[in-house]
Predict the structure of Alpha-L-rhamnosidase.
Amino acid sequence: MGFTFQINNDIHFKHDKQLLAKAASYRPKLKHQTINAKSIVELEKNTDLLEDCGVKKVADINELANRKLKRNDKVILDFGDHCVGNFSLKVKSVGSPMDAPLFFKLKFAEMPAELASKSEDYDGWLSKSWIQEEYLHLDTLPAQLELPRRYSFRYVEITVLDTSPKWQVVFEQPTVVTQSAVTADAVTKPRLADPELNRIYQVGVKTLEDCMQDVFEDGPKRDRRLWIGDLRLQALADYATFKNTDLVKRCLYLFGAMPTEDGRIPANVFTQPTETPDDTFLLDYSLFFISILADYEEFNTDQMVLNDLYPIAKKQMDVALKLVNEQGELQITDDYPVFIDWSNDFDKTTAGQGILIYTLKQFISLAKQMHDSDADRYISKLTLISEFATKQLFDSKSQLFVSGSNRELNVASQVWMALAHVLDDQSTKQLMVQTVKQLFPIKGIATPYMYHHVTQALFEAGMQKEAIRLMKGYWGKMIQLGADTYWEAFDPDKPDYSPYGSAILNSYCHAWSCTPVYLIDKYLLREGVSYDN
């Protein structure tokens, strides 16, 4: 299971200096906090936790200064919660004069399972340079060690590779200076009657906080990039919590400032050492630029932003509509695929059609706000594309949408047609009723990104009990397995699933998984929905 990205070496980008300047003007001043390690722990087998791996406390952190470590000794520090920032500690020698350098290793982990994995055994397709570990030599002690690289972790394993027979090493005052564009103290957390939903909400806030950095990162461990798919969901979660509209504007302007010569927006951009667009292009991600702009304008009307970015949004739609044939069918190409989910185990064409309808409706709303004389043309296109979906893709026998030449039935197709409200409200509810009846439990999907859309489709269809049940069974299950923040990938049937072949490369704090805060805010708080626990 894994999505294949196209490599485009002949793509040429334009850089709009004015839009880049506006993006820079919204760069956040990061907030910092000094956090001390809380305790010394050891790994222990725990079949209730991820990969049967947990920790047990063996000492208070103040005992660390009393531990004299020599070759092959190790100690694991627990900071008590997920942290993103720069690590430091004091190091000194005890015993005879120091007659050799200190050689030791630091390994940072978001989950205990990472510490149980051996770095040297990793042989996946993703670069092993993402493994969070450092091999260090210190020639003279005492020293104040301050690592320049930012890490994302809760646990730090220190392994002494060697001192000498004459002296030992002592580590003291392990700390991390955390960083984020926001602070969780600014969020008024709702009081929900259901304690499990309360916890699900709190972990979502923490996940979002740690991914809000210089931009909305996809993950602070890796890739540390601004991806459109993640940004769309992060922005919605942000409106429900931190309400940091400046960071949303910064990210919108970054994408808008660096399209290709044919107008397409890349799926992601790098911001270090300078703003650089990636050469990955996904049709649904480009269309979601429209969604992000429309969602932002709905939350915070801003004519300047709309004036600046509407032409870029319009270009994304125009490029997409060129892929629609005379019958109204979206014909996806290999060089401009849709993502939908990491999995390639299902046909994605009907889900792509649903996303086009979803974003076209949002675009028409923007076009009307801009008094665009072309609005009627887009309304006609919407009618054509929607009629193709209802007449050609909807199967009256199964009461579900089919996808591809084999008329495949899959969850993603139903979800995106439901979110796009291709059918009337009663028919949308029946669509999701049949989805639950025929296609649940969900198989072949392993990302919170897609699970978010399934859950939201259930809410949109008025199926609150089913939506809450899925939220608890998915995000709640991660918490049961030991999550402090939500993960990039998770399959409830295979909790140890990794797209990369090893837990050590998984991102256990990932932006697209933070959305329970949005779902709870929109469907259980703002709409005043009653529900049974």
User: Anything to note?
Assistant: The longest helix spans residues 349-369. The first strand starts at residue 31 and ends at 36. Residues 181-211+446-532 form one domain.
